Each structure stands twice: as C-alpha cells, then as structure tokens.
Amino acid sequence: MQFSEKLVNIRKSRGLSQQDLSRLSGLSRRALAYYESGERLPRHRATIEALSHALNVGSEELMDENCDFICKAGETYGESGKKEAARLIGQIKSLYAGGSLSPKDMDEMMLAIQDAYWIAKKRLSSAAEAAESEND
Questions:
Q1: Are the C-beta atoms of 56 and 28 separated by less than 8 Å?
Q2: Who's near 66: CB < 8 A, 6+ residues apart?
Q3: Among 20, 26, 35, 127, who pairs with 16 as Cys (CB 3.0-4.6 Å)?
C-alpha cells in the first residue's frame, strides 16, 4: 500500500478530518491534501514523524519503500535529489507494468536500482566537492 493510501486509511480510522490532522501534526491542510492525493511525498522524515505522532502510529506504519527512498534523497540532495528519486521510481514502475517479473524479482531489482542510485549520487557529490576545493 502506498503512503497516500496509508495516510488516508489511518486518518479516517481515527475519525479525524484533514483539518483535525493538520491541527494535531502542525502541517498545513494543503500539504495533507497533497500527501493524501499522492501528488507529493513528504520531503523530510520529520514530517512523517509529526504525522505518525499525531495519528499515534509508528512512522514505519505510514512509510512505504518509495517514500523512504524519496525522503532520503530529499534530505541528502535537496529538492533536485527528491525529484530525481521520484522520476526514477516512475521509470521503474513503467518497467514493471509489463508484469513479467515475479514479486521477489521486482523487489530485488528495485533495491539494486536504489543502491546504484545512491552510489552514483555519492560519486557525483564527491566529484563536485573535489572540483570546488580545487577552485578555492
């Protein structure tokens, strides 16, 4: 189940409106609407922590693998990293649409791609730092 679905289901099971959750979590109602519609994912883990605290659930109960990956990318590499991670997940979803992979193979492929992504980002970050220190 995706983050957006989990958020809606848990909020409704607690008998809360978006306005109630906004007040309890300290997040804007607009942000909650984006999260619940699946248009956006939280950029920071602190946002997920605020939601999980307000809903009285563990953060792992709200998060899915994609959300965790995108949050890590956003925290580490900012908005551009978050967008790249979301784009990568979209491309992978397109690959899976054919349905020829077993669920286990899909999971392994996704984890391998995520590992490759982090290695590439680390390499790019190191190269940028090296170039910056050469210019100083």
A1: no
A2: 2, 3, 41, 89
A3: 20
